[in-house]
Amino acid sequence: MAKVKTALVQMTCVADKQQNLNKAIEKIKEAAAAGAQIVCLQELFTSLYFCDTEEYEYFKLAESIPGPSTDAMSDLAKSLGVVIIASLFEKRAEGLYHNTTAVIDADGSYLGKYRKMHIPDDPAYYEKFYFTPGDLGYKIFKTKFAQIGILICWDQWYPEAARITALMGAEILFYPTAIGWATSQDAATNTEQYNAWQTIQRSHAVANGIHVVSVNRVGFEQNGAMQFWGGSFVSNPFGTILYQASHEQEEIKVLELDLSATDRYRTHWPFLRDRRIDSYEPITKRYLDND
Question: Which of 23, 86, 225, 290 has its CA 20 to 30 A from that of 252?
Fold first, then answer.
């Protein structure tokens, strides 16, 4: 399919898991009513962003995948005829957890999952306490409407992840995300951080000649100490911003993407053709020491 209507759902979350799930379901229905064929939710949409602290209690939020949330999403996808990208806290086994995104096809079938590969450990983002790094590798999913690649939040900063997923045949890169500003920061720092975040993802679109859809949460969490900056956006295959959400409001946006643009941009800017794969072995090293 040359054209596909994608939707991003940027929303706030509360402490009650079922309330967040119900809210997401209603917003997916709104997106479908507006013509969406693929709907992407933000990272860990069924809860507050609990990784701001290290608390054993929060492991109770995790669930199996497939499991209750994917069952609900499967029923919804089937009834609406839409693809759903759902980011969840996965309990794989006792004491083993992942930050995982499930993909549900338009007929309600569960296509599989991607486990977040890059796990941050920064102030207010203590994800290494909760999540084991992904071990499924990079993935693409052949949905009814497009062949899509999923990467999650911190994965956004790594060109290798985007490149590999694109080389596997992804026609669109989706990034469910949870990132924000500390409320103690000044406006200049906030602007610089957001611009860097958006720029690195736009560069993935350019380097790989594919659309990028990045969906972030919004609102104050951590008792008001963290403002998730929203700003969800869609980039075309040459880095042009087709849509950018606000930094403060919940939003649903449906946008038609012309997937045939990939061939046009890749033909005129043949980065894939001119790759010197014979010279890239050093990239597998942690650092290139002189010795």
Answer: 225
